[in-house]
Specification:
This protein has one domain. The chain is mostly helical and about 60 residues long.
């Protein structure tokens, strides 16, 4: 819920940013804090931002 509040009123911009990250086709996701993901980066991005549906999952 906290990440959703960050993008309050800017859902289209957030959706565009996530689409760009998906274009990069990441294998790993390393965050400044919290958990990081050694594999399945694309799937993790889609999972984390599923509330932005649709985010260009094709």
């Amino acid at each position: 819920m906290a990440i959703q509040m960050t993008f309050w009123g800017q859902k289209n911009q957030a959706r565009q940013a996530v689409r760009q990250m998906l274009v990069w086709n990441p294998e790993k996701i390393i965050l400044a804090h919290g958990r990081w993901y050694r594999q399945n980066g694309m799937q993790e991005l889609r999972r984390a931002f599923r509330w932005l549906d649709p985010i260009g999952t094709n």
